[in-house]
């Protein structure tokens, strides 16, 4: 039986250095200009999270996940070797890597992530779940346009945040995240599919939204950089047709105090949390409280 790293709610390795005082946290703090941009546009790209060594270790652990008989495979919440709806393209998508390997566990406590997340959420950061999105070279599939919260309505209120961290350089050519700036101010849209038709979202947009939709912005990143976005932000990514992969790990979080809105299990294999009860416990650890470093 593989070790379940979700049982540990602190750093497991020395891959990340946790600052010991307020001065040590300053290097990770977002500027007011960055916060204002996020609030106005719905996203913030180019935030450095990982260094070269951290990227290398995460890539090494990720390579193990592509093997069919990898240790710990019973711990995944979801595991799709190919979630693409077209047979000629591939989209590897999995949830729960933090339970399987120490580096994917520890990236949740990356200082650059937790500080930025606490500022963008306006308070203590609690873990929701992680994801892997990987597009191989030359035939990587799409992630269709969507809002993350449309898949998370089993929790409320809307006080969530997504952090997408590149394990490779992400460009328009290899399928970086695309945003519709300002769309986080729209209402919640119906789900039109996660890995299928990029055009399906047209059916749920009014004419004004469709006009805004004609001007997407690609969040191009260097490996180790992240883009953060609001849970109502409309985003997606196109195919990877170039000769290098586009691999990413995603951390989904919410502000401490979000509650369950469903009596059934919220993630596969995780004990249910009753409607109205606070999201907490071993699978939803508190990652960072900014008051602790004030």
Automatic annotation (TrEMBL):
The molecular function terms in GO held by this entry are: 2-oxoglutarate-dependent dioxygenase activity; iron ion binding
Domain of life (superkingdom): Bacteria
Report what the protein is called.
Phytanoyl-CoA dioxygenase family protein
Q: Which organism is it from?
A: Bremerella alba
Essential cofactor(s):
Fe(2+)
Q: Extract the InterPro entries matched here.
A: Phytyl_CoA_dOase-like (IPR008775)
Alphabetical list of Pfam families matching this protein: PhyH (PF05721)
């Amino acid at each position: 039986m593989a070790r379940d790293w979700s049982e540990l709610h602190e750093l497991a390795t020395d891959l990340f250095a946790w600052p010991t005082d307020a001065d040590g946290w300053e290097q990770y703090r977002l500027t007011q200009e960055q916060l204002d941009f996020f609030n106005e546009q719905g996203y913030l790209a180019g935030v450095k999270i990982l260094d070269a060594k951290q990227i290398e270790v995460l890539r090494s652990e990720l390579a193990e996940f592509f093997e069919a008989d990898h240790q710990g495979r019973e711990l995944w919440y979801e595991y799709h070797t190919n979630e693409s709806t077209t047979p000629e393209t591939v989209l590897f998508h999995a949830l729960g890597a933090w339970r399987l390997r120490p580096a994917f566990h520890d990236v949740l406590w990356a200082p650059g992530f937790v500080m930025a997340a606490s500022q963008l959420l306006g308070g203590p950061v609690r873990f929701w779940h992680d994801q892997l999105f990987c597009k191989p070279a030359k035939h990587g599939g799409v992630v269709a346009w969507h809002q993350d919260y449309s898949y998370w309505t089993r929790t409320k209120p809307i006080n969530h945040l997504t952090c997408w961290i590149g394990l490779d350089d992400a460009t328009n050519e290899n399928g970086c995240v695309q945003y519709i700036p300002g769309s986080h101010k729209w209402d919640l849209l119906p789900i039109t599919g996660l890995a299928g038709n990029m055009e399906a979202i047209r059916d749920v947009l009014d004419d004004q939204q469709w006009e805004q939709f004609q001007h997407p912005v690609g969040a191009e990143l260097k490996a180790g950089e992240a883009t953060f976005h609001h849970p109502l932000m409309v985003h997606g990514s196109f195919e990877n047709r170039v000769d290098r992969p586009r691999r990413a790990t995603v951390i989904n979080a919410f502000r401490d105090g979000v509650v369950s809105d469903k009596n059934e299990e919220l993630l596969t294999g995780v004990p249910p949390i009753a409607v109205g009860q606070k999201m907490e416990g071993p699978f939803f650890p508190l990652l960072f409280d900014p008051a602790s470093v004030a």
